[in-house]
Amino acid sequence: PREYLGSMSVVEVDLLTGKSDILSVDIVVDCGHAFNPMLDIGQIEGAFVQAIGYYTLEQVLTDVDGSMITKGTWEYNIPSVRSIPQKINTTLLNIPFEQGILKSKGSQEPSYVLASSVALAVQSLINSVRAENGLDYKVFSLPVTAEKSQLGFELSLGDMTLD
Q: How many whole angstroms separate alpha carbon 150 and alpha carbon 148?
């Protein structure tokens, strides 16, 4: 069955450090008839938080031989309480899927892609600042880490002074 879903993320990014805060996320998912809505919401939000790591934190680094440098959480960042949205609003569209078991659809794995809205919001914010400073649009490779964000602003010390 086709899954219909969408999300919108509101973020703030610190110009000096590149660290982003996810202020809020709105998620809408068509999972057919939800016979246990709380379970579906938990799975959807869990997949979203896991994917935040993939899209914004989990930079896998290797040495010249191809061996992983980022082997543990000291070098490899995963989502923590500080990197998840401050507010998550999840809405289930209760549209029964007649061919599904108990008229339901799956809701977990398709939700993973929704966290791309966080990376896209960060990229949009950075490009807004770049445009204000006369710089060209920049496309970022994933993950959009704090380091990439900070470097993406291309701000000089003079850009950070108040008039």
A: 6
- How far apart CA 134 and CA 39 sit, in angstroms, is 48
Question: pLDDT tens digit string along 53-63?
Answer: 999 988 888 89
Contact in structure between 30 and 52 (CB atoms under 8 Å): no
Q: What share of the chain is helix, strand, coil (3-state, %, to 5)?
A: 35, 20, 45
- CA 123 – CA 126 distance, rounded (Å): 5
Contacts of 66 (CB under 8 A, 6+ apart): none
Please report the beta strands in 1-156, taking only residues with DSSP state E, as ranges in sequence order.
4-13, 20-30, 88-93
CA 18 to chain centre: 15
* Residue appearing with tokens 């010390």: 157
Q: Contact, 8 vs 117, CB < 8 A? A: yes
The one-character DSSP state at 110 is G
Q: How confident is the model over 120-133, as pLDDT tens digits? A: 999 999 999 999 98
Largest CA distance in the chain: 63
- Dist. CA 115–CA 6, nearest whole Å: 10
CB of 24 closer than 8 Å to CB of 89: yes
Across 36-54, b (16+ Cβ under 10 Å) vs e yields eeeebbebbbebbbebbbb
